[in-house]
Amino acid sequence: MTSPRPRISKAVIPAAGLGTRFLPATKATPKEMLPVVDQPAIQYVVEEATAAGLTDVLMITGRNKRPVEDHFDRNYELEDALRRKGDEERLRRVQQSTALATIHYVRQGDPKGLGHAVMCAEPHVGDQPFAVLLGDDLIDPRDPLLTRMIEAQAEHGGSVIALMEVDPSQINLYGAASVDPVADGVMRVTGLVEKPDPADAPSNLAIIGRYVLDPSVFEVLDKTPPGRGGEIQLTDALQAMASDPAAGAPVYGVVFKGRRYDTGDRADYLRSIVRLACERPDLGPEFRSWLRQYVSEEMPHVE
Q: Domain Nucleotidyl transferase spans what residues (predicted)?
């Protein structure tokens, strides 16, 4: 009788990037702390992890990331001021981030790529499977992608990556996967190509920023030479595992068809804020009314 697979409880969130696409806003403010409506992007990611049952979160940070740590810490002076004013709603929201999970921090040091950031998690993760969540992708809580990935890993083992169909002309912006169907919405990944020319892409299934990784990935990453940009690429390690399961563990993909908010560049960031604001019950009705009026009256000839 095979022993049950270990329950996943740890999430790793790489947060050491410089955020150069958002300069000068990110000169002194971490990109993870840029507000999406009224809470920082990084909080959405931590909330997603905890909603999937991951209570132990490790953030891979770097220089100038202290505000991230402060955000998830207590602020007794602010809490006391809100309490004395009787502002219970804002007090609740301020305290919410401190009670989400047990959060740990480790510095990446040199920015050597996503693969290197994942390697920094090995002492904390050990020999257990774990999740990796990238902060540029926000997943709507009504579409529990990470929960589905954890279930797929429990059923099939190995590592699981999130895939999403994109317009074939846009596949050069992503890593692309070649796959064989296994079960409903689950694919066996047979190969990965980072940012291929659309004419050479194996499919229009793009890798998005959610992974559930087998600990064998650490050994593979340790042998992975620097790739694109002179950095250690997680995609390269997963490609080695997908093309030769004996190199680590098989790789599966879960195809995501839900709501995803891309905050990776300025235009997508603005679109994400508008979409999320429109969905909010406290802001949406008034904001949607204003938006319709603005588009119809203020921008009638904009194409």
A: 10-271
pLDDT in tens, 175-203: 889 998 887 788 899 999 888 888 888 89
In this structure, is residue 2 part of a structural domain? no
Q: Is residue 294 part of a domain?
A: no
Instruction: Give the domain range for residue 254.
Output: 10-264
CA angle at residue 103 from 97 to 105, to 5 degrees?
125
Residue 205's CB is within 10 A of a number of other CB atoms, namely 25
What are the DSSP calls for 49-72, one per residue? HHHTT--EEEEEE-TT-HHHHHHT
Instruction: Give the CATH number, domain containing residue 50.
Output: 3.90.550.10
Question: Which tokens in the block code for residue 233?
Answer: 């690429």
Residues 156-179: pLDDT tens digits?
Answer: 999 999 999 999 888 988 888 999
Residue 31 included in any domain: yes
246 pLDDT higher than 80: no
